[in-house]
Write a structure and sequence with these properties.
Helix content is 32%, strand content 28%. With 247 residues, it is of the alpha+beta class. The chain has a single domain, classed as Phosphatase 2c, domain 1. The strands form 2 sheets. It has a 5-stranded antiparallel beta sheet with strand order 1-10-9-6-7. The longest helix is centred in the middle third of the chain and has 22 residues. The relative contact order is 0.22.
Length: 247
């Protein structure tokens, strides 16, 4: 039987990859407050970098400090923080034409004891490695993945599709957005991975599973993932954030 108490450790790495001139990914976490997130920005010029950084900063600010009602349930606070980040990005893009249309994906893990929630918008993903088995926790908000789920396209066709980059839901591009929310319970030994699509476009889930299933410090595991994605082509920015539940 799993222990009733877990604590978490975390590490992250980000790299602009082999093809992109800049890095529009951003990440942040606070083990103390149980919040971990990865964002992948989009938009012309430096707009993607602005959107992803703004999302990370706003969500950490609202969940990592004495802002709002701390007696309020954590999930409710997390949803309000996502709403605030969306408003901050959307408002900034309307005030500055150079940033018009900017947005970002987001995948976040929030924890409270053994209870955990994964929230996502876009195609940055959340996974859990448990007993050497990797499970994707999130669903991509992308045109091809939605067509695969509807049976209108095969996974093989999706990989080859020129529409792979079309995102159907993003943070900051509309006045409001709703994240998917997945609730779960963490067991000691669980390893959570939050990543931008620069990792998952280059590496199959089986490759990620093999790289993670090693008794190494989290920082070294992050470095292994980034190196493997770059070796496979590194066509996009690569970010991974690992969170381990320990008894």
């Amino acid at each position: 039987m799993a222990s009733s108490v877990v604590h978490f450790t975390a590490a992250a790495a980000t790299d602009r990859g082999c093809k992109r001139p800049t890095n529009e990914d951003a990440f942040g976490y606070s083990v103390e407050h149980g919040i971990y997130l990865v964002c992948d920005g989009m938009g012309g010029a430096a707009a993607g970098e602005v959107a992803s950084s703004l999302a990370v900063d706003e969500i950490l600010r609202l969940l990592g400090g004495k802002i709002g009602d701390e007696a309020e349930p954590l999930l409710q606070r997390a949803q309000k923080a996502v709403d605030a980040a969306n408003e901050a990005i959307f408002s900034r893009s309307r005030r500055n034409l150079r940033l018009s249309g900017m947005g970002t994906t987001m995948v976040a893990l929030v924890t409270e004891g053994r209870r955990a929630w994964v929230l996502n918008i876009g195609d940055s993903r959340g996974y859990r490695l448990r007993n050497s088995h990797l499970e994707q926790l999130t669903l991509d908000h992308s045109l091809v993945d939605e067509q695969v789920r509807e049976g209108r396209m095969t996974p093989a066709e999706a990989i080859r599709s020129p529409l792979r980059n079309v995102i159907t839901r993003a943070l900051g591009t509309q006045s409001s957005v709703t994240p998917d929310i997945f609730e779960l319970e963490a067991d000691p030994g669980d390893l959570f991975l939050l990543s931008s699509d620069g990792l998952t476009r280059e590496l199959a889930d089986s490759e990620i599973e093999s790289l993670l299933d090693a008794d190494l410090p989290l920082g070294e595991l992050c470095a292994r993932l980034v190196a493997a994605a770059k070796k496979a082509g590194g066509k996009d920015n690569i970010t991974c954030l690992l969170v381990r539940a320990e008894g």
